[in-house]
Amino acid sequence: MKKIQIFGGGCAKCAKLYEHAEAAAKELGLDYEMEKVGDYQKIAEAGIMSTPALAVDGKLKLEGRVPTVESLKELLK
């Protein structure tokens, strides 16, 4: 099971990244778990400088932008 984490304080871009990541995971038919991380201390501990950010299985994949669903599918494979 893939663990998909969205880091951000709850801004509109963070919500959009969550939506896009979930759509990409569903389109790929992945067995996944989504998690929102809004705690700024946890965000800092993950080394994230710009939100929204996305991590897959504990590895930071992107930060500071909201890619398309198609782009996210590549990151989630």
Explain this structure to me?
There is one protein chain. The chain is an alpha+beta fold and 77 residues long. It has a single domain, classed as Glutaredoxin (3-Layer(aba) Sandwich). Helix content is 40%, strand content 27%. It has 3 helices and 4 strands, in the order βαβαββα. A 4-stranded mixed beta sheet has the order 2-1-3-4. Helix 1 packs across helix 3 (69-76). The protein is globular, with a radius of gyration of 11 Å. The chain starts with a strand and ends with a helix. The model has no long low-confidence stretch (mean pLDDT 96).
Helix proportion of residues, in percent? 40-55%
| Total beta strand runs | 4
CATH superfamily: Glutaredoxin
**Computed Rg:** 11 Å
- Segments where pLDDT lies below 50 for 5+ residues? none
Which sheet architecture does the biggest sheet show?
Answer: 4 strands, mixed
H/E topology pattern: EHEHEEH
CATH architecture: 3-Layer(aba) Sandwich
- Count of separate DSSP helical elements: 3
CATH fold-level label: Glutaredoxin
Q: Mind sketching the topology for me?
A:
Layout: E1 2-7, H1 12-28, E2 32-37, H2 40-45, E3 53-56, E4 59-63, H3 69-76
Parallel strand pairs: 1-2
Antiparallel strand pairs: 1-3, 3-4
Helix pairs in contact: 1-3
